[in-house]
Amino acid sequence: MVWVFAGSLSLPVAAQGVLLYRYVNAEGVKVIHHTIPPEYAQNGYEVLNSQGDVVEVVQPSLTDTELAALQQKRELEAWDKDLLKRYSTVADVKAAKRRRLGEINTNIAILRGNILNLDSQIAREQRRAADSERQGIQVPESILINIKNFRGEKAAAERQIEERRDEYRQAEDKFDKDIDRFTFILERREQARTSY
Fold first, then answer.
1. For residue 121, which of 74, 146, 162, 185 sits 20 to 30 Å off, Cα-Cα?
2. pLDDT at residue number 52
């Protein structure tokens, strides 16, 4: 009874039609089978019904080169979209570049001013230390701590200036690329417009 029941469950599946796979094997021969080996699945295949009709086509997997090209295409499309959203003309991009580089230069100028101030504070503390030594007394610990702290702050400000200079170079390079790309986009649009 159980076997009959189990057999009757499989009848509707057979009535619907068994799906087959058509793929090309390593010898270049088309094979039709009820399963497809994994090593052939990545090359693409067709799914057939019991009448031999193609019900689905599975495309081959992309190669590493094709995947890299697709990724590059998507990145360019995203870049183009971003540029077109932010700018109307090449002059807009150049103005944004000037503003950004100006901001970085202002930041560098502030840091340089801080360094000059720290140099003055260091010199003042060193004079105080020298005065103590000339009087034959031990330099107060607070003066030594101040000198150490001011030198640490100066070193940190100098590092920040180097970071801002790197940021300047990176921003300049990025905006130059944006200008070149935006110019290309506008030229491509103009060519498309005039070709109609």
1. 162
2. 83
